[in-house]
Design a protein that fits this description.
The protein is mainly α and 179 residues long. It has a single domain, classed as de novo design (two linked rop proteins) (Up-down Bundle), CATH 1.20.1440. The protein has six helices and no strands. The N and C termini lie far apart (62 Å). The relative contact order is 0.15.
């Protein structure tokens, strides 16, 4: 009788542990989806701010055109193309903002100062959101690689999450504010 109770207790313990692991994996996937939505919103906000800057008539026409094209490409890119498009926008923003005396010219104009503040905030948000998302991907992937999760297929039919790799280096002047 003692042996039966011991086996039964072991089965109950194993069931509770497996249920806990499955619940944890589910929560990690929900966290991952939330982190992706935050990153997506930050990327859209940054491209919208870049488009506003391009349309502000504060830049020379060639710079406005290059910035608008890059922001539009980042906004409309999908799938695997998005990482490259967002990286191109980051490089374009750095090239625009790091022009000699660019920040001083923008600070001298009320609209320009507001746009630069918005751009700095959007760039910082992209940087932090991408870090948070990639951290969530790393934790989820680690949890999915555990033996129990693989044997019992606790992830269900959810695809393995992938990192979002892009150049998110902010324009000069903002990088000193971010650590």
């Amino acid at each position: 009788m003692t042996e039966i109770l011991l086996v039964l207790a072991l089965l109950v313990f194993a069931s509770v542990y497996i249920s806990w692991r499955a619940g944890r994996l589910d929560r990690l996937h929900i966290r991952l989806e939330t982190a992706w939505e935050a990153l997506d919103a930050a990327l859209v906000r940054r491209s919208a701010t870049a488009l506003e800057l391009a349309a502000s008539r504060l830049l020379d026409p060639a710079t406005s055109l290059v910035l608008a094209a890059s922001a539009h490409e980042a906004r409309t890119a999908g799938g695997d193309e998005r990482e490259l498009a967002e990286s191109n926008l980051s490089r374009t923003l750095r090239a625009v903002v790091e022009q000699p005396r660019f920040r001083e010219r923008m600070a001298g104009d009320e609209v320009g100062a507001e746009l630069m503040a918005d751009l700095d905030a959007a760039s910082a948000k992209v940087l932090y959101s991408r870090r948070f998302y990639n951290n969530a991907v790393a934790v989820t992937r680690s949890s999915r690689r555990r033996l129990l999760a693989r044997l019992l297929r606790l992830e269900g039919h959810t695809p393995m999450p992938s990192f979002f790799d892009m150049d998110d280096t902010p324009p000069e002047g903002l990088s000193s504010q971010i650590s």
